[in-house]
Fold each of these.
Amino acid sequence: MHSVSSISDSNLFPYLRVQGEIDLSGQIEISGAKNSALVLMAASLLTEEPIHLSNVPKLTDIDVMAKLLSSIGANVNQISNELDIKTNGLSLSQNSLPYELVNALRASFVCIGPLLARFGEVKIPLPGGCRIGARPINEHIRGLRALGATVTFEGENVLAKTTNLRNKLIGTKIRLTCKSVGATETILMASILAEGKTTIENAAREPEIQDLANMLTKMGAKIKGAGTSTIIIEGVDHLKGCIHKVIPDRIEAGTFLIASAITRCPITIFPVIPKHLEAVLIKLQECGCLIKQTENTIKIIPGKTIYAVDITTMPFPGFPTDLQAPFMSLLSTAKGTSKIEETIFEKRMQHVGELQRMGAQIQLHDNIALIQGVNKLFATSLTGGDLRSSAAMVLAGLVAKGTSVIKGLSHLDRGYENFEKKLCNLGANIKRTEVKRPISNRKNTEKLESKMNVGSGSQVA
Ligand code: EPZ
């Protein structure tokens, strides 16, 4: 049985000390994709047979998902990067998921699809809004209703039920009104055991969806078109267990490529699927970086000068919203004026204020940032308000004059496996300190953290 320690120890106040102006060199090994692994864990709920996942990153978000599955009777065991899940112990009566866990990890809401498909009924807490935007679930619900489920809201819970005696969802055609990754995953998983054919139009095309479809296919599902805007699923009666390796994390990979560009030092990353990073590589090349790639490695050789570029975040294959904050750190040091427009999430510009405190020249108009590159950023005390902006702070700290102190690490630890260790292997000087808060200070610090939006319970993924 998986034992998960507390989501984070609120008595510890961890921070990083990042020394700036140090050259990096060498190679970095990229971990498995967090956003794939989380949904693959949810997909394990579709079968009674064992699932073995390899290349699963060790992250607090994975711990929370494991804890969530365990809470409804699954047996989850992670050793290093190998994860075994057995869900034969699940029972219908236990299928109400604990509020604290769904609330701590937004991605856990996708469990609604597989649980409904397997048991014909599920009760799951509403995931709520989060730091980077409201993140509604209307498309998930609309999709499940189209598949024949009744979906009602009871207090803070969503209750979904099939409506026939066979406890089956019924295949249909669903057109998403926005290219939602989560809604595509929910509907895909819900329709696998449905009667007949389901077509998802305007589906999200992210590599994590292709990874999910690949694993489901190994389990016996019949899926065509994953990775395109139209996914067609022929329902099957039963799914079996499988062994599956999680794809490399394209967002972690992109973050390290940006670390190279911001420090103007060449590095190599592996294993990666370069096709997953095309939009990012194009922008790095436009900035003046030379990119050399093989089938599963990317070497980046930044120019001495990084040039301004314009970026608009878009669903895959467009420029990913998850790399918007790290790229803004880079463009803060570019020659000329860049424009970044965030189109996916309405509150994903929280790093702007922190970068400005380092000397970055950024004007923000709603979700459009105009960045006039400066010659130097200056170290200060910084707080990452969400996962990707925490990474952006570390990257800015790598080139700033002086030593930056970076707080809000609960966010960083949700999504980057051994982040500072990997950078230190390239030569960076980053030290993690975890100080125990004196009891008398805890209340004040907690208040301060919640004011600064750096509490440990906030949702990102
Ligand atoms: C996934 O979130 C990722 N999380 C996010 O990763 C990523 O930023 C995001 O996709 C976009 O690429 C996981 O995979 C666990 P969406 P998700 O549904 O699925 C709107 C990270 O840093 N929308 O594709 O929740 C929504 O408001 C993160 O690792 C609706 O309107 O994102 C947003 O504007 C955070 N109705 C847009 O779609 C819905 O029912 C895209 O959201 C659902 C979404």
Note: The domain at 12-31+248-452 is CATH 3.65.10.10 (UDP-n-acetylglucosamine1-carboxyvinyl-transferase; Chain).
Amino acid sequence: MNKRYCIVTYGCQMNVHESEKIAGILRSKGYEEGKTQEDADIIVFNTCCIRENAENHAYGNIGALKKLKKAKPSLLIAVGGCMTQQTGAAEKLKKKFPFVDIIFGTHNLEDLGRLIDEKAGRKKSVVEIVEGKTEIEGEDADFSFRTSYPNAWVNIMYGCNNFCSYCIVPYVRGRERSRRPEKIISEVNGLLDQGYKEITLLGQNVNSYGNDVGGAFNFPQLLRDICKRKEKFRLRFMTSNPKDFGEDLVRAIAENEQICNLVHLPVQAGSDRILRLMNRKYTAAEYLKKVEMLKKHVPDCQLTSDIMVGFPTETEEDFQQTLRLVKEAGFATAFTFVYSPRSGTKAAEMEGQISDDVKKDRIMRLVELVNAQTRELSSAYVGKTIEILCEDKDEKKGLYLGRDEYGRMGYFESCGDPIGKFVKLKIAEASGVSLRGKACGE
Ligand code: SAH
Ligand code: SF4
Ligand code: F3S
């Protein structure tokens, strides 16, 4: 019987995709997917450290494995991802959890196979963290084992140069490194040939794609080149940083049918003073001007965002400005976060840290506003016909599900096998973010 693996993933889509790469490596070493942790011969934690609670989660779950490891000493436990890449983190992990066998970082994920070999027959743990890498991770082979059909993630760049004052990502992911357009296009074409219907291009700031090679290529051009494939598919991307969200990109969205008319444009805050302290390099008015420009060129466009409350020194008036901006920009939905100090970042050292009570109160008010906007938009769907890409079946509900171009989830009944197909749904009910409809023609 083959050995089995189990991967536990925390964090953003970048990490979800990297777990597909980890799965690919493990399969090439003869492992197959296990159903539970008890069932596994190797458990890999792909961690995140964007906020303290992401780290606490991982720490808690790694700690809980001590018993399992004791009962089954042959079990391999590996920890990788953003958490391990922080200064001193590998040492801390080793001390806290001496039963962890392998610790690797964000820059050497592709070496996991070798690290497993090194661990074999050795008592001591294998720790390998690479710093300041300039080349591109695993560029020469797409070794991902994808399980997200009909959707696929494709990296276009790694790292971040922006150093927003609250953010740990530039420290744990290194400087921006753009993949060559021909590599990306050939990966996308390969996926479309295999029948994938939705491609999401990933980068911390896709708008600076190509800047690290002196602008030899750029993001709008990449989108246009990918869209030369004329069959029906959807193209998404994330994340776009507002500071260099420009008209050429908006034109590329408007020109190409395949690019979804949904832009995720994280604003973070509505107060110029806070935005300056965050080092975001735009004002609220500049942000809203870009939203206006987008709506002019792509009138049926929807906007989503990331918003943070409780940044150091944030006053009630600053927070009110965030609420006003949420209304003015008309976000369809938003990911909302409570600011979490990250050691090594500028904001963690700032005076005027906000108390947990105030943070809690503000996040509740923000979530209420965002949810009200989402509900209002959803209710406008009732009676309309939308097109969704069917992704899966919810066995509990006995319903198929998929998303429209704006990412809204639609549920429906079907007696065929609609997964991977575009389906027209007449919407009968809307509740919060999800819709219920009837497939036309069934
Ligand atoms: N590169 C993306 C963001 C990646 S992190 C961008 O610039 O838009 C995703 C989100 O996590 C950020 O947009 C921000 O809202 C949130 N975030 C980042 N650091 C945080 C921190 N220290 N505390 C709370 N939220 C944080
Ligand atoms: Fe973090 Fe800012 Fe880079 Fe986004 S752009 S990853 S928020 S530093
Ligand atoms: Fe993503 Fe978390 Fe790393 S959000 S880039 S996995 S710190």
Note: Residues 160, 162-164, 167, 169-170, 204-205, 241 surround iron/sulfur cluster (ligand 2) (CB under 6 Å).
